[in-house]
Design a protein that fits this description.
about 110 residues; 5 helices; about 20% strand; alpha+beta; globular
Amino acid sequence: LVWTLREIDRALRNWHALIRPGGRLALVDGLWFPLGMAAFEGMTDHYDQEVRSALELAEASSMEPWLDRVEAAGFVDTQIEPLDDLYRLDSIHGVAPGHELTQQYLITARRSS
């Protein structure tokens, strides 16, 4: 869950350094709080304003910021794919208690050679 990282750019740069040239990065994440955490009952009890400010992708309204940061870390051939089968299965079988049905995405990229 990349949205929970306080230093997203640093983590991505570190992963870039660790992945061999030509190697692939795969991330799964979603738009968990596109209306802001305050719109979800109880979230501000766990995430005060200081923490919410540090979680830069938590309240993103599109997946573009993920792609921008992956590319800024030096990855190439970035792609994003909605995980429609996962969404369909979650809609049939339900999600974890306290969670809402959320579209998740697979972000892939390659470290340049």
